[in-house]
Specification:
The protein is of the alpha+beta class. Helices cover 23% and strands 30% of the residues. The protein contains seven helices and 17 strands. The chain has helices at 26-30, 80-86, 104-112, 125-133, 139-142, 144-153, 218-234; strands spanning 6-9, 12-16, 21-25, 37-41, 45-49, 52-56, 72-75, 96-98, 120-124, 156-159, 163-166, 169-173, 182-188, 191-195, 239-240, 249-255, 258-263. A seven-stranded mixed beta sheet has the order 1-2-5-6-8-9-10. The chain is globular and about 45 Å long. The protein binds zinc ion.
Amino acid sequence: MAKGTSFEVGQMRVHILDDGVFVTDAGNLFGGSQKARIKGAMHPVLVEAGDDLALIDAGFGPELPEILVGRYELNRERDLLDYLDDAGYTADDVTHVILSHLDADHVGWALGTPSFPNATVYVQEAALEEARQMPEKDGRRAVVPAVEKGVEEGWCELLDGDGNVLPGVRVEVRAGHSAGHQIVWLGDGDDLALYTGDLAPAKIWLDPNLIAGVDTDPEAARKNRIEVLTEAEERDAPVILYHEPEDCLVKVRSKGDGFEAVPAGSSD
Ligand SMILES: [Zn+2]
């Protein structure tokens, strides 16, 4: 990704940050015993919204979580806090952290060792509830104590469905990858951008039929992916792809029974 990608939407400036690249066996993402190696970036998003500063998703954190050692490799020379610094901010400046869901590659800096002392962290209650039901060794289950601690101490707020976290920053529950998985619409009126989280995290996921082994409700994921990408196309909204190593800001266009990515600068 070009370093320091940022753009304007509505009254806000949006910076696409970076937290390195992970490498894993395809089998860890799609199930089965596929031997191919798969690479994914992590692109948390920073939104300047008036006096507030919102971060959407929070990478792996200071280091690869213990639960993933041996299955994932994390490669980076610079991390999220370095890219935050490039954008002109420190961890103290972040006021809101929105977590799309509770997988380790999205919550690290926000939950593992909370790095944003002045921020409220927003999690869907349904995502927490699902995480509580996961098997002991699951990554989602592993962060439950941190979320519960946050709720108790008042720095984590549980959401129940769609709504504005800030003016121009609207979360919408689009489940499938996990229960309570939330996407984020940025902007207002016709001037919108979309953060898809793990509903469609990279260009290969613009194929609605691609199901990840880790999707807890594949049919919901498929239906929501089609609906959301259709809406992004109709609204001509740039889409931020969290795990896309290159060109993580695109627009989508229908193609066959799926979608393709076109440069974000394209218009109808
Ligand atoms: Zn992910």
